[in-house]
Amino acid sequence: MLKTNIKKLPKSEVEIEGELGAEAFELYFDKALNKIGAEVEVDGFRKGKVPQNILLSKVPEIRILEEMAEMALSEHYPKIIAGENGGEKIDAISRPEIAITKLARNNPLGFKIKTAVMPEIELAEYKKIAKKIIEGVDEKEKNLEVTEKEVEDTIMDIRKSRAPKKHVTEEAKEKHSCEDESCKHENEAKSSEAGSPETEKEAPLPELNDDFVKALGPFENVADFKSKLKDNIKLEKENQLKEKTRLKIVEKIIDDSKIEMPEILVEVELDKILYRMESDISQMGLKFEDYLKHIKKTVEDLRKEFRNDAEKKAKLGLVLNEISKTENIKADPEQVEKEVAMILEHYKEADPERARLHAENILTNEAVFQFLEKQQ
């Protein structure tokens, strides 16, 4: 009844060439005609009540055949990729591209389907890589002690930020620059709106006293503020070292693993990057189109510019997912429930199922990183 032949293509794509037997294909004739009849208007008949012989005289045969083909493949494609009827199971990750190769009454339906599949990944020796990188962290990096100078410098920055200002200077904007692509472009857009830099007179700094620190947060006095600030700086150092080490580990695993990256996954990551950028620009009250004119780039230019970043993110997701499967690492169900509850509380319109998938993905990835960090 249904014959298929699966051929592997480059970049983790497959081509399914097949035929649905003539008898099986003919079973869709009445269904297709009835569906078309529900939409066709013929004088003298109510919509959906046109007799078949009248429909056949009004509707071109090719339209009926195309509807039959669509119905047949909509029903059989899920069975094909599920490996029913003894076929090879296909882990499809993209919308199929379908081409009809044979289409006629009382004949088999011929077709070709191309789709991207989850790539085969030959993982590097991730445990050894993690162990080597963790052991390679030098003593200087491990030294997370906070000096009095670091505390005083941070306090000075806080006092300066709370000092009254009459103008925004270019220097102030530069201090808020960052490496993330969306933040970087946000600053560029702000600069374009700000115009020429303006000068300002030195304003007196607020005095560091108990009243000042109490206005900053739940601090009892200056001594309590300094103590907690020192703890926060140390925590930030710990997080920076952890993120730096994690980045080294996953980059080395990605470099040493063999992954044939599907184009669709790179495109998905590019879409995410551009969506975040457009959202950031819109929140500033600017039009994305005007921003593009200012930086003299098109959307396609940006897609080329961020392609490497998108590919790295796609590979990172694949590698973490493969390690989680290999090591049977799963997110803690209780933590997932808490995370989902928080998401739905902050985003009332969020889809609960998508929120759950997001929470499971984030927490599973965190569990994988914690697993790698234990390889000492």
Question: How many helices does DSSP assign?
Answer: 17
Major beta-sheet overview: 4 strands, antiparallel
Q: What's the name of the CATH homologous superfamily of the domain at 2-118?
A: Trigger factor ribosome-binding domain
Instruction: Report the radius of gyration as a whole number of Å.
Output: 30 Å
Shape type:
elongated
Q: What is the CATH class designation of the domain at 2-118? A: Alpha Beta
Termini separation comes to 57 Å
Structure classification: alpha+beta
CATH topology of the domain at 2-118: Alpha-Beta Plaits
Structure summary, number of beta strands: 6
Strand content: 5-15%
The strand order across the widest sheet is 1-2-4-3
Summed over residues and divided by their number, the pLDDT gives a mean of 87
Instruction: Pick out the low-confidence regions.
Output: 167-179, 192-199
| CATH architecture descriptor text of the domain at 2-118 | 2-Layer Sandwich
- The arrangement of helices and strands along the chain is EEHHHHEEEHHHHHHHEHHHHHH
Task: State the main characteristics.
376 residues; alpha+beta; Alpha-Beta Plaits; 4-stranded antiparallel β-sheet; two-stranded antiparallel sheet; 17 helices; 9% strand; elongated
